[in-house]
Design goal:
With 216 residues, the protein is an alpha/beta fold. Helices cover 49% and strands 15% of the residues. The chain is built from 9 helices and 8 strands. The strands form 2 sheets. The chain has a 5-stranded parallel beta sheet. The chain has a 3-stranded antiparallel beta sheet with strand order 6-5-7. Helix 2 crosses helix 3 and helix 4 packs parallel to helix 5 (89-101). The radius of gyration is 17 Å and the shape is globular. The protein binds adenosine monophosphate (AMP).
Length: 216
């Protein structure tokens, strides 16, 4: 089962991908996480993308397709969750080709619908545990007062993303509407698109995704 989670920044793609990894043993391929790791380790590619990411613009297709190609060539899994990829039509075409080379196909595309006001509120309130990636939110799931992650127990490892500020968020949203949202029509026309309400509770969204996967 190969799945794309599609939606604007802050729609909850990463959170839901983590559940699918835990509960279904799928492998999450997040180009955002891969790019942040490259940036943090100071590789040449990391240095090239750092400024683009800080602004909230899209990294070139060539770079992100290369990252996904490398993963698909080396990792075996019963299913991949593509989180934050593809973000352009060229990336979507490349993904079809890469999966076909592996003798696989895309099974489902789930669009997580969330309104823009909610996105801004969510993103400016979010934090994660640097040790395990557990996601927190100042309003709905605040960082514990004792400073210990509720998932892994790590102490004071909480961090906020450098691009989770209003200015870069505006650019990220614009990039989404200009370059990524055409994928909704693209996958609809291919008969692969399912839409779910991404605004419900975490468990509600989880159940909606499970409903799509179990009927695919
Ligand atoms: P994300 O963690 O998915 O929100 O991605 C963070 C940032 O990484 C984005 O704002 C882009 O700058 C870059 N990025 C991640 N995935 C892609 C992609 N598929 N294509 C282009 N840029 C990407």
């Amino acid at each position: 089962m190969n799945l794309i989670l599609l939606g604007p920044p802050g729609a909850g793609k990463g959170t839901q991908a983590r559940f699918l990894v835990e509960e279904r043993g799928m492998v999450q391929l997040s180009t955002g996480d891969m790019l942040r790791a490259a940036k943090d380790s100071g590789t040449e590619m990391g240095q090239i993308v750092a400024d683009v990411m800080a602004r909230g613009a899209l990294v070139t297709d060539e770079i992100v397709i290369g990252l996904i190609r490398e993963q698909l060539e080396t990792v075996e899994a019963s299913g991949f969750i593509f989180d934050g990829f593809p973000r352009t039509l060229a990336q979507a075409d490349a993904l079809n080709d890469l999966l076909a080379e592996k003798g696989q196909a895309l099974d489902a595309v789930i669009e997580m619908e969330v309104d823009d006001e909610a996105l801004v509120a969510r993103i400016t309130a979010r934090a994660t545990c640097g040790a395990c990636g557990e996601v927190y939110n100042d309003n709905t799931k605040p960082i514990p007062a004792d400073g210990k992650c509720t998932n892994c127990g790590a102490e004071n490892q909480f961090k906020r993303r450098a691009d989770d500020n209003e200015e870069s968020l505006r650019t990220r949203l614009m990039e989404y509407y200009k370059k990524t949202s055409p994928l909704i029509g693209y996958y609809y026309a291919k008969g692969q698109l399912s839409k779910i309400d991404g605004l419900g509770s975490m468990d509600g969204v989880k159940a909606a995704i499970a409903g799509v996967l179990d009927n695919t």
